[in-house]
Design goal:
This protein is α+β, with helices and mostly antiparallel strands and 212 residues long. It has four helices and 14 strands. It has a single domain, classed as Deoxyuridine 5'-Triphosphate Nucleotidohydrolase, Chain A (Distorted Sandwich), CATH 2.70.40.10.
């Protein structure tokens, strides 16, 4: 796995044939001068999910957690470009990229915070991996680790996306395994879907105890 250079990113973005299966799609498409240091800047979009901390004592995947429970714990907010959202110290907020991104099967990507915002206390504490074949707007998990509130504006260059090539001989078949693929707004957590996996491990644990 190797990191794509600025030139290689540009070659992938500006392919003459839009149907080329090796093309990276970023919409709106960045200008060539915006591709710097082997990365492309990620712009913060208008939709956020904020947490209402008083509703739950704990989020427990093994409880009778349902989709509507998660929705009552988190609230979706729209912030226009001429408005702002204040993130207080210790606060967790879900944001979303303004750009829509689609990766081919031979490209993997990672999101990293820009140091300008990191020095202000904002961490893009996201699931940084963007798997080959992903398409959609990226959800950004934002945390204020500083000591003072920080104001965020839709349209700011909050993070960077870095692309890496992956060896594959199956470029023409789209494989999408992410449960959050295709979204254009930040999605509520699907923690309630983890219970089946936990129950499976509980059964393995019981069998292990019986063997001992």
């Amino acid at each position: 796995m190797s990191v794509l250079s600025s030139k290689q990113i540009g070659d992938r973005l500006y392919k003459d044939d839009p149907r080329d299966m090796g093309r990276i799609f970023i919409v709106p498409t960045p200008q060539r001068e915006e591709i710097k240091d082997t990365s492309v800047d990620i712009i913060l979009g208008n939709y956020f999910i904020v947490t209402k901390t008083a509703n739950f004592s704990t989020l427990d995947a093994k409880s009778n957690l349902r989709k509507k429970d998660i929705a009552s714990y988190q609230e979706k907010v729209y912030v226009p470009f001429n408005k702002s959202l204040v993130i207080h110290p210790g606060t967790f907020v879900l944001g979303v990229t303004w750009q829509y991104i689609a990766l081919p099967n031979d490209i993997y990507a990672q999101i990293v915070a820009r140091s300008t915002w990191g020095r202000a206390g904002i961490t893009v504490a996201t699931a940084t991996s963007v798997h080959p074949g992903f398409c959609g707007c990226l959800t950004l998990e934002l945390v204020n680790n500083g000591n003072v509130p920080v104001t965020l504006y839709p349209g700011v260059r909050l993070a960077q996306i870095i692309f890496m090539s992956v060896e594959t001989d199956d470029l023409n078949t789209q494989h999408v395994n992410s449960k959050y693929c295709g979204m254009i707004e930040p999605g509520f957590s699907k923690l309630y879907e983890e219970v089946n996996e936990l129950e499976r491990w509980e059964e393995i644990g019981k069998l292990s105890l019986q063997d001992n």
